[in-house]
Amino acid sequence: MKADSIFSQARIFNPFLKIWETADIAVLNGRILYVGDAEHAGISSKIFIDCRNTIVMPGMIDIHLHIESSLCTPIEFAKAVLNRGVTTVVAEPHEIANVFGVSGISAMVEASKDAPIDIFYGIPSSVPSTNSSLETTGGKIGPKELKTLIADYPDMICLGEVMNYRHLITHFDALAKGESSDRTIELIRHMKKQHPLAAIEGHCPSVRDLDLAELLYFGIDSDHCLQDTEGMRQRFERGMFVEIQEKSVTESVIHFLESHDVDGLYSFVTDDVPPDILTTQGHLDHVVRKALSQGLSLEKAITASTRSPAERIGFRDRGVIAPGKTADFIMLSGDGSDFTIKQVFRRGIPAEESIHASKSYSFPESFAKSVTIDASFSLEQSFDIPCSAPNYAVCRVMKKNRENTYTAEAHRKLPVRDGRICWEEEEDLNLVLVVSRYGKETHAAHGFISGDILHDGAMCSTYAHDHHNILIVGSSKEDMTTAYNRILSLQGGICTVSAGSISAELPLSVGGILSEEPMDKLSSQVVCLQKSLRDLGIEHANPIMTMCTLTLPVSPELKITDRGLISTKTAERVDLILEHV
Amino acid sequence: MKADSIFSQARIFNPFLKIWETADIAVLNGRILYVGDAEHAGISSKIFIDCRNTIVMPGMIDIHLHIESSLCTPIEFAKAVLNRGVTTVVAEPHEIANVFGVSGISAMVEASKDAPIDIFYGIPSSVPSTNSSLETTGGKIGPKELKTLIADYPDMICLGEVMNYRHLITHFDALAKGESSDRTIELIRHMKKQHPLAAIEGHCPSVRDLDLAELLYFGIDSDHCLQDTEGMRQRFERGMFVEIQEKSVTESVIHFLESHDVDGLYSFVTDDVPPDILTTQGHLDHVVRKALSQGLSLEKAITASTRSPAERIGFRDRGVIAPGKTADFIMLSGDGSDFTIKQVFRRGIPAEESIHASKSYSFPESFAKSVTIDASFSLEQSFDIPCSAPNYAVCRVMKKNRENTYTAEAHRKLPVRDGRICWEEEEDLNLVLVVSRYGKETHAAHGFISGDILHDGAMCSTYAHDHHNILIVGSSKEDMTTAYNRILSLQGGICTVSAGSISAELPLSVGGILSEEPMDKLSSQVVCLQKSLRDLGIEHANPIMTMCTLTLPVSPELKITDRGLISTKTAERVDLILEHV
């Protein structure tokens, strides 16, 4: 029998018998035909890849990430992560779904077809993240959209992270008894009934005890949020799969995993990796490397990045080195302990060749014209915040910090003159404007930030979680206007303005959230933009992220959308002005 | 919070942490809400089931069986096995598919909807078992039928056992390279592409080494055939899931399972359990009991009958006692070591109540009129086997044995008189007639059996694997005619005739293969029929089975269908008469 290639005498960890073995791997048509002594089995090949003394492991599988976080297209993303040993991902495209709905997801799936890795998708379950009275989006995903997507694409492999966990817990009784309806519960019920083999992915930050049981009760049985040992133990104990991202790789978590027989109950994931981090530190390989450095055994690390994620999703054709599985391999240097990747193969072919053979994809032309502002909208007029108070207005302010992307609600007395709030001269305050951009009626809302803010200049972005309307921040009307106009003319992106002119910019031509540039170029642009935001005063480690999540109405505690200030505790709109003084 | 019921202080094996724990199980709407200290969690209930000192395990899941082997309808089958602790099955309906095609499978699914257990189905991949030139069937399942079934029924959960393993191995090169086409490979390819989460179930008797790898290569990665330790070890080593039926429960197999860390790689199944065995010995409980008696630990036995089969198929809502899972429980007596079932609960409700609440189903009227013989067919004339030999004809004979259902090909010189073979007076010989009954052109074929045969009387059956045409066996034309006429007037079933009159009969009114009687009554009928066949001379332990598989053209070595004698080695028709003498 003839194989296409034989990877001879590879060192392989056999996850079934839990032993290391030395074996030949024969590959035919991109799948593994045989593992063992190829000559003895009568298998020949023209191509022999000598793997003596080399650890060969399956390509890694990342089952929770958002390609949009890398700001690039699926193809460029794939090229970058393949070299990091990632050969399969399950991406959750809720960002592009907020911009374009089903057609955005369809375009992502189409854009992934000729990528040099396998890109599967989770169907976003939280688009919009709240509802249309709290944020304007370009698309929404309900049961009808879900059915369309599943019917069209077998690659829509699971229900993506259910984000409104707090709502489900708070209203558990009514929802469980069917006395109250909820879009997410409808989606889950449909999936459980019609697609019982598909995973329902969760998002359960710090949830414990009965609250955790309630999410499991609905069928939500994974969590990729920050873990500690007790929360993780509770998840394992009741059958919730844990997806460990870089921030969860702590000494105590790794010690728990190393000292308990819980293989198969967890995997490594990346969630969000921006282009500059991807280029410098890596992707899933970086998470694995960190886990190894903190004491996890190589066997467990391999299992948690290959077989366990495959089994979680239900992939039957990958994640192990065995006959019938995809011939996606990573060769490691030395004893593998520092997880240095020597070479990556996809479908039995060197990564370089796979990358070379991948075809680029053109997004629909309309995706490059996604910023539409109603003619009746005037930015100039928006700078005026009318107020009938005699002297002062007590206003709600989003207080930012340097540590995370949460804000606190603060109150601040601002002077009122000529029937408008005078915010321009205030110390430690930026105006925030959010303007809807989906060509329907244009909404705009005002807010203020304090704390970790711009001390100078302005920024504008269409990348503004999750609705991706236009976010404008600053203290200078002129700079804010310059930034806004630049983003309009770019039809999407992020820019900063300093002393009247553009200081850095990141054009995001695809729907205002993705760039079509290669990862390296994109990474340089991001580095410049981050530096520019830092120069303007932002102290958070990830300035872009801290600004672009000001608009996320499910993240504590006071955020802003095009429909107004949102108290995320109550999931309600609240007034900017609390009191006239 | 209010639950519907609380199973308090149950002894539970936690398969995630691999520990025994004592916990309350709170149930809401038939699903588990909470496992732990219910009072501490603030959960109350009007119904408390005291489980102190009682082992509570999940309902068992049998992922490979044929309901038709029990000869009864899904509802009656379900009632019988629920009391044995089986709460979920994956049935493979290739018998009814041979009779009615898609409409037969649809009826089985419909007939299962109100059953007191959950009945899922595998899509039969081998209907007919060969092709229409070798056997006439009432239905066939190809890619078109598969698509219809999956679109209509989310309960069609996997691709059922791929039976033509020998063909796939023999023609591996051409099939793998796409140079040759095959219906089964087409079905597999469709499933892998369109339904990648669905299992592809295998049938790999005694297959080893490269042959085994070739089946895995196509995606066939389970086997429920007879196991020995070396074959099983090879399957585990390369990721093939092993389904252990009663005949595979041997001391050496159990010793292997007990002494290796291979939990999750195997489950227990029943495959075929006839009604008399089900009633007297049991079902999956019997297999588990046998495994325990041979030294398997209770923990491993529970895992192999609950969690492992659930994970194999990809069920996400059952197989463990954890929040969100179906509240299907078995209470065991004592320490569980003899696997005596104290009580079974389905969806938190006692089995008796579930059985009481189940609604009966009426099969379509046409299913009771499934035996149609062309008016041109004459049984009387069929007894004459024309032959132009001067004195003798050397004929092929199916030599039966008492041990299994295989036959050997023997050759026998039979006298020829008046242009016909004189078989009536031969010692150790029965005539076998197979007559097609699907209302198309009627085909009939002659054969002979020797060895373990009827010494007197005759038998007739429409239950004749897998095509279920009419099988008539005997040495007396009169008795054979009586049997045949009785089966025609019953419109299906099995009967024996002795000394001119019906001696035992088993009416099978649904398509000639299923009875609508309750299991107890059916079991009595089967016992009578088995006794009658024994009285007529059959020595095999299961006389019905040994007769009704004479017609199975994929079982070694010489079998008979309505299209003629089939050499199952070459999968070709062969002549009855070898030589004129």
The helix fraction of chain A, in percent, is: 25-40%
Give the overall average pLDDT of chain A.
Answer: 97
How many individual β-strands of chain A? 29
Q: The biggest beta sheet of chain A, please?
A: 10 strands, mixed
Distance between the termini of chain A: 89 Å
Query: Residue ranges of chain A: pLDDT <50 for 5 or more in a row?
Result: none
**Residue fraction in strands of chain A:** 25-35%
Oligomeric category: homodimer
Helix/strand-derived class of chain A?
alpha/beta
- What's the number of helices of chain A? 19
Shape field of chain A: globular
Radius of gyration of chain A: 25 Å
Largest interface: A-B, 61 and 61 residues
Description:
2 copies of one chain form a homodimer. In chain A, 29% of the residues lie in helices and 27% in strands. The first copy, chain A, has 581 residues and is an alpha/beta fold. In chain A, the strands form 6 sheets. In chain A, strands 17, 18, 19, 20, 21, 22, 23, 24, 25 and 29 form a 10-stranded mixed beta sheet that branches. A 5-stranded parallel beta sheet of chain A has the order 6-7-8-9-10, with helices on both faces. In chain A, a hairpin with a 2-residue loop joins strand 15 and strand 16. In chain A, helix 2 crosses helix 3 and helix 12 (284-293) runs antiparallel to helix 13. The radius of gyration of chain A is 25 Å and the shape is globular. The model of chain A has no long low-confidence stretch (mean pLDDT 97). At the A-B interface, strand 3, helix 6, helix 7 and helix 8 of A face strand 3, helix 6, helix 7 and helix 8 of B.
